[in-house]
């Protein structure tokens, strides 16, 4: 069994990236970003997910996470992705204003048919690409900076803390949209 891209240490801190199938720009709409945020908040409060840094871009997400309690990180991530996919797809299907509705549903259905684990639609790519981090290493700081600088590099903002859907504001100025678990 491969150990690449696995949550090997249950007590570890991980940098995790995951994307929408086909890199579809779903999160250009606030309603879909907010559904994802609700799912992360729920997992933080009810499942023991510890979020040390986060970022939602138009078609992918970066997190630095760990866990408290007994739930496995892979189970928390699976549940979060499953629930957020269900809610976002429901919102897309029921929307009377989503101009990309038919196109997105077609692509999600096509991805779902190519995956035997799905019955209808596939929203998220199946990989999480967790990379274990040592809090006291340069790699932790590199991943944190990469995560926060992503919207700056994409030309969306000039300063990382100006991007609303990120924990950069927590690290630079104060409280953002999602409470983070600061590492000491």
From TrEMBL:
Keywords: Membrane, Transmembrane, Transmembrane helix
This protein's name: Transposase
Annotated Gene3D superfamilies: Transposase IS200-like
InterPro entries linked to this entry: RAYT_transposase, Transposase_17, Transposase_17_sf
SUPFAM superfamilies found in the cross-reference section: Transposase IS200-like (SSF143422)
Bilayer-crossing regions: 12-28
Native source species: Pedobacter cryophilus
Annotated signal sequence range: none
DNA-binding listed as a keyword: no
Pfam families: Y1_Tnp (PF01797)
Single GO MF annotation: sequence-specific DNA binding
NCBIfam families the UniProt entry points to: REP_Tyr_transpos (NF047646)
Taxonomic superkingdom: Bacteria
